[in-house]
Amino acid sequence: xxxxxxxxxxxxxxxxxxxxxxxxxxxxxxxxxxxxxxxxxxxxxxxxxxxxxxxxx
Length: 57
Hints:
By secondary structure, the protein is mainly alpha-helical. It has one helix spanning 8-36.
């Protein structure tokens, strides 16, 4: 007799979970590169000089 109302609660929970998952996926796509360093190029200027020879006496 109450079979028609049994699924409405779980349907609402599923809808909220789907929306929550979509928000998480969009956040990872938009901010994932910044959070995990993807697409970031780091330029390191390595200026290595040889030590000068000690003055001989």
